[in-house]
Amino acid sequence: MIFVTHAVPVNEPGHPVITREMLWDGLVQKADNALPFVPSMTECVVTARLSDTVFDRDIVYRGQAFSERITLEEPHRVVFTRTAGPVLGTIANEIEGDESELVLRFSFALVVAGEPGGSAGEREHADQMTDGYRAAVAATLDAVRRIAGGATV
């Protein structure tokens, strides 16, 4: 199993100030349609709405198809549970800190189909996934900053 966590400060000099509410709204938009937030994702379709806070979606990320169940835990966490695809597990986007020091934390616990835990193949996948997901965190924060600056995504 691959475990990774990565935290990024939200408000940095030279960027629009992001409030907790703005960051939460951006994460909800990303959950609903990740295409403007994750450059490596080429498809994102909501397939079922189970409640106001739980829904399913199908995505294509780096050419691989996945199904996910999304759980919105307002106002601090969005959980993406991979239910089908070559890599299964859980990804969480979490808002931490107070208004003056907001942090966006991205964590995942994933299993690669066909790769034994701790194997060289799993480690290779982990390195590739870690780089890709760190880029997705940066792209997500950039999109939220663009929204805060008045752009539409």
Describe the protein's architecture and organization:
By secondary structure, the chain is α+β, with helices and mostly antiparallel strands. It contains 2 helices and 7 strands; from the N terminus they run E-H-E-E-E-E-E-E-H. It has a 7-stranded antiparallel beta sheet, with helices on one face. The longest helix has 29 residues, at 120-148. It is globular and about 45 Å long. The model has no long low-confidence stretch (mean pLDDT 91).
Give me a quick take on this structure.
The chain has two helices and seven strands; from the N terminus they run E-H-E-E-E-E-E-E-H. The protein has 153 residues and is of the alpha+beta class.
User: Oligomerization state of this entry?
Assistant: single chain
The total count of helices amounts to 2
Helical proportion?
25-40%
Give a short account of the largest sheet: 7 strands, antiparallel
Amino-to-carboxy terminus distance: 34 Å
Low-confidence stretches: none
Count of DSSP strands = 7
Report the order of strands and helices. Answer: EHEEEEEEH
Which class of secondary structure composition applies to the elements?
alpha+beta
Give keywords:
single chain; 153 residues; alpha+beta; seven-stranded antiparallel beta sheet; 27% helix
Topology:
Layout: E1 2-9, H1 20-32, E2 41-49, E3 54-61, E4 64-73, E5 77-84, E6 87-96, E7 103-112, H2 120-148
Antiparallel strand pairs: 1-7, 2-3, 3-4, 4-5, 5-6, 6-7
